[in-house]
Write a structure and sequence with these properties.
By secondary structure, the protein is an alpha+beta fold. It has one domain. Helices cover about 45% and strands about 25% of the residues. It contains 3 helices and 4 strands. Strands 2-1-3-4 form a 4-stranded antiparallel β-sheet, covered by helices on one side. Helix 2 runs antiparallel to helix 3. The longest helix is centred in the N-terminal third of the chain and has 16 residues. The radius of gyration is 15 Å and the shape is elongated. The protein starts with a helix and ends with a helix. The model has no long low-confidence stretch (mean pLDDT about 90).
């Protein structure tokens, strides 16, 4: 009987990550945006890259959300980050030098 809740919860968890409701658990860098302020919640990010990310998000009017860089160099965005700016953010995050 305990298999039914697991069979329901596991796909829901994957869907929540895929749709951008929660960040992936394997992220090496996690940025949180609250009230328009970008904060590094996990990992490292150069100050220049953080400033660039904050500027891009500010220009786009993003006031909340998250950006996660996974261990295999994939960037995941919350549903609050517009699709139009995601490639610019990927460029900044993946090309930074620590």
């Amino acid at each position: 009987m305990w298999l039914i809740p697991i069979a329901v919860l596991v796909p829901l968890a994957f869907a929540a990550i895929w749709l951008g409701f929660v960040p992936p658990p394997d992220s090496r860098t996690l940025l949180r945006v609250r009230a328009g302020v970008v904060r590094v919640a996990k990992g490292q990010l150069t100050s220049h890259a953080r400033e660039d990310v904050a500027e891009i998000l500010s220009e786009s009017g993003v006031s909340k959300g998250f950006i996660a860089v996974t261990r295999n160099e994939r960037v995941r965005f919350s549903r609050h980050i517009p699709v139009a700016v995601r490639q610019r953010l990927r460029n900044v995050l993946l090309n930074q030098s620590l």
